[in-house]
Amino acid sequence: MERAAVFDVDGTLVDTNHLHVTTWWEAFRQAGHQVPMHAIHRAVGLASTDLIGHLLGEDRDTDQDAGLSAAHKALYGQYFDRLPALPDAGELLRRLSRDGWKVVLATSAGGAELGALRRAIDADDAIAATASADDVAAGKPAPEPVEHALELAGVPAERAVFVGDTVWDMRAGSRAGVRCVAVLCGGLPRADLEEAGADAVYADPADLLASLKESPFA
C-alpha cells in the first residue's frame, strides 16, 4: 500500500523563516505599523491575510491587506536567487522516495516563490506533487492544505506523515488525522510544537534523515 510523506517547506526544508520575519517587519513598518519581530516569527506559517489579521487584529483597516502582502512579496523576492536549503533537505526527500513514500509539498507559497523554494531544495525528482495556497480555501492551521496533499497522493490519512516547523503545521496535520513530525530549525520551542500535536521532534532534516529507522517513517 502506498504511503505519503507530506512536507511543509518554509522553515522545514528551506531556511527562510527569519527572512520572512525581516521582510514582513519592513512591510509593516512602511505601512506605519510597529510590529515586534518576535510576534511576526510566531505568526510565520500562516497565509498572508491570516498573518496580517493575527498581528494587526480583526479591527484593522483591511484595505491595507493587499498592499502589505504585495510589499512583503516584493521584499522577500529579492532573496529568490539565494534561498538556502536546510542540511540534507533534498537527500531526505530522495531517501523517502526511494523507500516508497510519495513525497508531497504542502506550502502557502505559490508561483515564483514556490519555484525558488524548489530550486533551493533541488530534489524535483523525488517530489510527486505540490499542494500550494492557491489550491485551497483556507490555509494552515486549517486541515485543508494537508488534506489536499493527501488527495494528490491518493493516500489516506492513516498512511501519511506530515513534517513541519510551526504550531500551525502541527495543528493542521493533527486536524487532518495524520501523524505529525516537527523540526526545530524554524526556531520554535520543542514544547510548543509538542503541545500543538507533534508526535516526534528533530533538529532539522539532517537529524530526521539520520533517525529514520526510529522515526514515524519507520
From TrEMBL:
What's the protein called, per UniProt?
HAD family hydrolase
User: Keywords in UniProt for this one?
Assistant: Hydrolase
Q: Which Gene3D superfamilies match?
A: HAD superfamily/HAD-like, Putative phosphatase, domain 2
Q: What parts of the sequence cross the membrane? A: none
| Cross-referenced InterPro entries | HAD-like_hydrolase_sf, HAD-like_sf, HAD-SF_hydro_IA, HAD_sf, PGP-like_dom2
- One family name in Pfam for this protein: Hydrolase
The scientific name of the source species is Streptomyces vinaceusdrappus
Source taxonomy lineage?
Bacteria, Bacillati, Actinomycetota, Actinomycetes, Kitasatosporales
Q: Which GO terms describe its molecular function?
A: hydrolase activity
